[in-house]
Records
---
Amino acid sequence: MEAQARKSRRELVANLTASFATGVTTISLTNPVDTLKCRWQVSSGQSAQKLNSFVRSVVVDEGIWRGLWRPGLGPNMVAMGLAIGFRNGLYPTARDSLGWAQSVLLPLPT
């Protein structure tokens, strides 16, 4: 039984780690689009400006890293890493636990 518990813990840690990495990777790739969307929405007096000219002005004035990637990257990585990590990483454990509880509490009639 102890070997099964160790295997189960290793599997849980592996699922949490992989899911957390997925969340961090996803936000690392999509943060510039989200930053651009937010900056375009709150830009004062530039609402009539086309998206491509807005992107160009942000990149020219601030650069790609400072203008698009850096704003909000750290908090977004933590938030998405935890959200996806816990949701997807804990799912197999929760599913198996609920399946076990259902089989104990509501056994199939024979």
---
Amino acid sequence: NEQIFQLIQKDVLCDEMYAHRYPYDWRTKKPVIMRATSQWFASIKPFRNESLDAIDQVSWVPAVGEKRISSMVLGREDWCISRQRSWGVPIPVFY
């Protein structure tokens, strides 16, 4: 870090130490525990078109939700199906 700083020092406007606060969840106000866990991903390529057709058939309230989910389905190759929100949350299974 020191060697890099020496290289860019002439272009740096401010140099100060900053102690980052521990992250807290904005809903529960409890500390966020960072941990790396194994995740399961599913490719959505095989059913992308069917998903987009199904999205078109839903009555969205608010309507902006349709654009949001459509862009997610269009822009992702894989979808995480094992998000670690809390224990006991079932993993969706596609048949």
---
Amino acid sequence: MAIPTKRDRPDADADDGASSENDQRPPLKRSASVYSNINGVPRTTTGRLPHLGLTDGELANRVVIVGHIARAELLASFLQPEEVGGKIFYLSSDRGYTTYTGLFN
């Protein structure tokens, strides 16, 4: 998690009564990919994320994280396949992470 500092804020140039040499530095410039694009995350030679075992398109934009596999299975029972006649996506990674992906109405 990135914790914003005074230099990260747009109003960093505002005078707050304290003066120091650091106040004269320009705000940090960060690539947008740091926050919004996971393509910068290291991947295996097969293109999968090492800790989850997932690749592009296998994880939904919104996720629910539970503490026990029985709860994950229960919630997965409410999901619909993304494609008609298809199956709910399921993957259990080498590190013990289980992923179900589907649609919820």
---
Amino acid sequence: GVDQSVAEARRLYELAVARGDAKTAPRNLQRLNDHIQQRCSLLGQRVVIRGLNTAALNETRGTAVDFGCSEMDPETGRGVIASGRYTVRLDGPEGRLVKVRAANVEEEEDD
């Protein structure tokens, strides 16, 4: 299936709020932000990639710019976090984007 992008959902809710959709958009935006804090807490954070079979990407650093789930819970219609992947913009001049399972992304520690 197609990944459900948290960043795209946030962008669309923010656009609806800006356009004056006061009925549902503010509440949905708040629910989404709460969901991000609880389940996708590395979104927007500096991260390190670890534990991949692709050794060249292990220990690379970047910023988690999105989170998506391709598997949906049939009862709730929400993405299954365990199936989710962060989109990480790797450090470097090209800013390569890679999708990595949540289990393989850790918060970068301050040196």
